[in-house]
Backbone:
């Protein structure tokens, strides 16, 4: 995979989080992730604080397989994109080292240009360059 193809993967990944059509969103998920792929989220600070208050030293949120990943993406879409307030965009900095791709992304208000949030994505690729593990670090 060349650097251009690596950035295309990052662009497709971010585009599916903005996709309004549920059928196209599911198709994009199946094109990006492996069937047994996993999405692992480092939760926001407020969730980590609640977990710590319950006695958990660490917290991760995980979605496994197409169905769970679809629910995860749908809920993010419904919360941030569907109301017409925000959209996600890649920063154009995707890099690949063997089977690992990293890139950053931003959450931007509709009609605005300045990001109000963002994060780091680290993708581990498997056969056919499909994501087998997706590590998301929002807030970075």
Residues:
């Amino acid at each position: 995979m060349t650097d251009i193809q690596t950035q295309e993967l990052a662009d497709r990944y971010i585009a599916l989080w903005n996709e309004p059509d549920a059928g196209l969103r599911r198709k994009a998920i199946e094109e990006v992730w492996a069937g047994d792929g996993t999405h692992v989220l480092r939760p926001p600070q407020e969730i980590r604080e609640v977990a710590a208050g319950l006695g958990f030293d660490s917290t991760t949120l995980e979605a496994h397989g197409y169905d769970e990943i679809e629910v995860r993406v749908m809920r993010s879409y419904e919360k941030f994109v569907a109301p017409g307030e925000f959209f996600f965009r890649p920063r154009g900095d995707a890099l690949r080292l063997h089977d690992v791709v990293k890139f950053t992304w931003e959450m931007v208000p509709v009609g605005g240009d300045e990001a109000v949030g963002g994060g780091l994505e680290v993708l581990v690729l498997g056969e056919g360059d499909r994501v087998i593990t997706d590590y998301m670090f929002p807030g970075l």
